[in-house]
Amino acid sequence: MTDRSAQARQARIQQSFDAAEGYDAAAVLQRVAARRLFDGLRARLADRLPRRILEVGCGTGFLTHMLHKAWPEAELVATDVAPRMLERARKRVGEGVQFCEMDAARPDVTGAFDLICGNLVFQWLEEPAEALQILADQLAPGGVIAVSTLLDGTFEEWRQACTAEGLVAATPDYPAARTVQGWQPGLCAGKWTTERCVQPFENGLAFVKHLKDTGASVPREDGKAFSPAELRRALTRFDQAGAMVTWHLAYGCFQKPQRAGVFVTGTDTGVGKTLTSACLVHAWKAAYWKPLQSGLADEEGDTATVMKLSGCLPEDCFPSAGAYQASLSPLAAARAEGAEIDPARLALPLETPQRPLVVEGAGGLMVPATDTLMMVDLAECWGLPVVLVARSGLGTLNHTLLSLEALRARGLAIAGVVLSGPLNPENSKTIQEKGQVRILAELPQQETVTAETVAALSGRIPAWDDVWGAMQVWRKDFSEKV
Fold first, then answer.
1. 118 beta partners
2. Candidate list 69, 290, 429, 434, residue with the active-site label
3. Are 357 and 287 in contact (CB under 8 A)?
4. How far apart are CA 305 and CA 12, in angstroms?
5. Is 91 labeled as catalytic in the residue annotation?
């Protein structure tokens, strides 16, 4: 679609919503989606109180009202492309909210916002993934962005009724769920969930009126209007099939990391996490934190090793929440000493938040950290992008791809994979393609590891300022591929 045709379509959408006088009475599913979205973003915020909130595509204010009622002291900016919609929202919500006319795809507001949200607006945008990223860039550290959209299959019953009469429905083409999964703002942790809702209508005319009343009657670009006879045939067929439609909805909720940094984990024990961590600390002049350390009876500990190899100072390292002698999982090692790991001490350090922090996990993702938490649970809690360290040789494909799948199931952002050991171009290529992930670095096997070795290897690590940009390119490529 050309820029001119895209602008013309956006103008038609704006006019359609402005003319939707019966929106509040007809927008049943819009209310349902607003409630689902609100519940999800509130759960993601937990007990934190957002001070600045931006809502895009506020419509007549269903979600706006919920936001203002929950956080009346927050600065709430509600925006929409349709000025008449904004007036209705103002009447619904009352004082205490700033209403602005704005296109969600071209936000002209200044962050940082603690919460950005938009209900059922992204299906109307030409470049939804880019719009999501532009908005996420306005988040404050730890901020949340929550949006919803319609998916492929919505109004399928109407499409089938039209097809049965030899007609092509002009309802918009919505994205597939797999495509939407690729819409993830870089560095942010979170994921999409889906929902299917069935809405009955009295008859086909009521459904068509519903589309008009909710401003959703703008056809897709190549859609053609039916003649009266064609419309009657399609409506009759729709009524015979039960006069109901299915809505397929997706809800995305993502959180920006509370600080700069990465979480380093591995596909197994002894794959090179500590060497990788030392290289990252050296390359980025980063701080270091080993939350849980075991095996001190057999070695000096990872914090001391990273200090020696990277050249960082004691003040660059945060103290461990638990350090134990036995070479076991942190939970088992603590039990062997009759100790308990206090989850409260596992809170992510937030001092000097602009400085990168390298957090090194213990073992792999499914290693028990406490009675109730695995390492992957802690990674999810910290919300940092993950660097996955894997062996380069035989057996790495299964372990690495399974680990990547586990990370994505938790909605964790993946900064990339570091392969440790002899260079193996075939495995590197396979992991990159099958895992849809960036190979962040390949660290060849070393006979001895010294500070000089780490200084040389750290040259293979991308600069910290490049990590974010590289993730954006990779996420965009991934979205386009799927």
1. 147
2. 290
3. yes
4. 63
5. no
SS3 state at 162: helix
Band the pLDDT of 476: cuts 50, 70, 90.
very low
pLDDT at position 475 over 50? no
CA 19/CA 443 separation, integer angstroms: 61
DSSP H or E segment with residue 204: helix 204-213
Structure tokens at 227: 């003649």
Beta-strand relationship, 139-150 and 244-255:
antiparallel
CB 14 within 8 A of CB 51: no
d(CA 245, CA 154): 7
Which of 411, 417, 443 shows the shortest CA–CA distance to 432?
417
Exposed (0-12), middle (13-18) or buried (19+): which is 152, by Cβ within 10 Å? middle
Distance CA 209, CA 155 (A): 14
pTM attached to this predicted model: 0.87
What pLDDT, on a 0 to 100 scale, did the predictor assign at position 4?
Answer: 59
Strands laid side by side in the 52-55 sheet: 98-101, 75-80, 52-55, 113-118, 139-150, 244-255, 189-200
Q: How many CB atoms lie within 10 A of CB 269?
A: 13
Containing 144, the helix (H) or strand (E) segment is: strand 139-150
State the pLDDT at residue 146.
Answer: 98
250: left (phi over 0), alpha (psi -120 to 50) or beta: beta
Other C-beta atoms lying within 10 Å of the C-beta of residue 119: 28
- pLDDT score of 344: 86
- Phi, psi at residue 33, to the nearest 5°? -65, -40
d(CA 235, CA 231): 6
Please, are residues 80 and 101 in contact by the beta-carbon 8 Å criterion?
yes
- Three-state secondary structure call for residue 320: coil
Q: How many other CB atoms sit within 10 Å of the CB of residue 413?
A: 25
**In Å, what is the CA distance from 24 to each residue of 17, 89, 102, 112, 244?**
12, 10, 21, 31, 20
Q: Give first-to-last CA distance, the chain, whole Å.
A: 20
**Alpha-carbon dihedral sign for residues 23, 26, 30, 35:** positive
Closest alpha carbon to 306 in 453, 460, 451, 464: 451
Q: At 387, which helix (H) or strand (E)?
A: strand 386-391
Locate 31 and state its tokens: 């209310």
For residues 413 and 262, give the distance between their C-alpha atoms in angstroms, rounded to a whole number: 10
Q: For the segment 66-80, what is each residue's pLDDT rounded down to a tens digit?
A: 999 999 999 999 999
CB 326 within 8 A of CB 336: yes
For residue 15, is pLDDT > 70? no
Amino acid letter at 360? E
CB 131 within 8 A of CB 105: yes
CB-count burial class (<10 Å; 0-12, 13-18, 19+) for 294: buried
Q: Tell me the residue length of the chain.
A: 482
